[in-house]
Amino acid sequence: MASGWALLPRIAGWFRPYRWLVGASLLLVIASAGVSMASPLLLQRVINVALPQHQTVLLGELCGGMIATGLLASLASVGQGALTNLIGQRVIHDLRVGVYDRVREMSLEFFTAEANTEIQARLVSDIGGLNDILTFTAQATVAAVVSLLTSCVVMFILSWPLALASVTLAVALNLANERFARRRRELARDRQEQVSELLRVVGEDLALPGVILGRTLGRCGWQRTRFAEVSRRVGELTYQQRLAGRTARALIGVAFACLPPAVYWLSGTVVPGLTLGTVVVVSILQTRLSGPIQQLLSLSGTAQSSLAMFERVFAYLDLPPAVTLAAAGARPGRSDAPFLRVRGVSYSYQGSRQPVLREASLDLPPGTCTVIAGQTGSGKSTLALLLAGLLTPAGGVVEVGPEAADDARLRELVTLVPQESVLFSATIAENLRFGCPAASAADLDAAIDAAQLRELVTRLPAGLSTPVGERGYQLSGGERQRLALARALLAPHPVLILDEATSALDGPTAEAVHEALLGYGSERGYRARRTIVIVAHRIPRLRPHDRIVVVDAGRIVEHGAPGRLLAGSGRQS
User: Fold this and answer.
1) How far apart are CA 526 and CA 521, in angstroms?
2) For residue 107, what is the DSSP state?
3) Residue 370: enclosing H or E segment and its boundaries?
4) Which class is 4-317 in CATH?
5) What is the DSSP string of 54-70?
6) Which residues are 342's β-sheet partners?
């Protein structure tokens, strides 16, 4: 990936959709700068002609012109600022959505390797840090460049020797400032990395599981020490970054403080013959020249710092997508369950020496209930993820009917309920309707009854309108699992996989949920069209025609009817 100033063409590409707004903003900048330059020229006429010759009419006209130019320049500046902020916020939005979409297209292994707080830092902290550079800084840079150019043109017209001296000084100051700008960029990159680390520590320590862990193990002091150390590093890097910028601005300020005296001395010695009005106007233009130069040199450091953020944002945008997601609003309709076949499927996680699943083969006829059992680490959850289209097999194939199915096709058919499901900080009804936005009140009631949630909903004062809190922590672990199961039942997918989805329930409740699950939707004809796969350590009560699959060390070692396997009939081929 390109870095530093080489990123500028790519950054400019994000402004291409708004090129007409950018053009209008530039025209307003030029108009504002051009009108502003008229005021010093009018002042020259005031000093050289109107005042010495006591021409009151001309003096009134010139003063009125100066007021009018100031008003027009201010109006143009307001309009330009509005356009620049509008463009900047739209680009920020596009970048944020672009990173969000790219992260959603990553494989599951990306989310296991990358801390969630690092993803949040790129989306919120890094892109948020670009807000100023794309709005206020961009506006100030364009205005400073145009003001600098127009000031130089007018100065060359009035006195080219003084203009040449000023431009030479500007070039020298820019070279001196480059060293400070480079240092600020390095510090900005280091600071953003430490900010990401700070977000990670806060996410671990101050989330409910982290608080419980620290208190029960007596490690609150260690957590505080770790947080304080990272916070200290962020503070030190911020201090060094700002000190580098202030040092550069101080040196530049000292240099420009010498400019007006230099103008007066040159006008009286090296460049004689200038009128008083010309000397005053050149002195004013020197001030206007020094301001944009100082601003540009200061903004150079800010731009260097922002490039470090752009590098981090583009690093995510350059990640190769691993998953093709369904278009927004596209939802599968309810359909009959297909015949699923697993043929010789293998899978290995990155960094693992041994495959977690080896040449697994399995048939899942439509409308059946299959329990996948095995010890921890045997590969049963990986098999569930492959069936759900959330992992891509390293070998073998999953077939839907007579044809091989890709991950996208499997995701259209399968709903997976993991052991730790996500609940949104919303009401019970809103969490349920995430599985089916068009679900009716009767649909919600049926799913609630099947998940054994009726008692909970009845005793809550607001019923289905009760908020569940952040991550659903206002509910117990078992209640969260049952709510996630009810949500999955509402989804239109014909295949339902439960991966330890009732592990937080007691035995009688788990059995009741299982029985209700097998009968769910029978009055609507859903049951005959839904295939159920249960991944569990604890095997529920099964019917004679249900099936058990035993996974051991990544291989399917037994499968068949529950009566035969539980009676120890041996392995089935």
Assistant:
1) 5
2) -
3) strand 369-373
4) mainly alpha
5) T-HHHHHHHHHHHHHHH
6) 362, 398
Distance of alpha carbon 264 from alpha carbon 282, whole angstroms: 10
pTM: 0.71
- Residues forming a β-bridge with 340: 364, 400
Could you please report the per-residue DSSP string of 337-363?
Answer: PP-EEEEEEEE--TT-SS-SEEEEEEE
Nearest 10 degrees: CA dihedral of 558, 561, 562, 565?
Answer: -40
CB proximity list for 313: less than 8 A, separation 6 or greater: 95, 99, 122, 126, 127, 130
The string of pLDDT tens digits covering residues 33-78 is 778 778 777 888 888 888 888 888 888 888 898 888 888 888 887 8
Instruction: Please give the CATH topology (third level) of the domain spanning 340-566.
Output: Rossmann fold (3.40.50)
Segment 511-551, tens digit of pLDDT = 777 777 776 755 444 445 688 898 887 777 777 778 888 88
Q: Is the pLDDT of residue 569 over 60?
A: no
pLDDT in tens, 446-501: 888 888 888 888 888 888 888 888 777 788 888 888 888 888 888 888 888 988 87
What is the rounded end-to-end Cα distance, in angstroms, of the chain? 52
Which residue intervals of 318-453 are DSSP H helices?
A: 380-387, 407-413, 428-433, 441-450
Q: Classify residue 29 as exposed, middle or buried by CB count within 10 Å of its CB (0-12, 13-18, 19+).
A: buried
Find the radius of gyration of the CA atoms of the chain.
35
Domain ranges of the chain: 4-317, 340-566
Buried b (16+ CB within 10 A) or exposed e, 285-312: bbebbbebbbbbbbbbbbbbbbbbbbbb
Give alpha helix (H) positions in 46-135: 56-104, 108-113, 116-120, 127-134
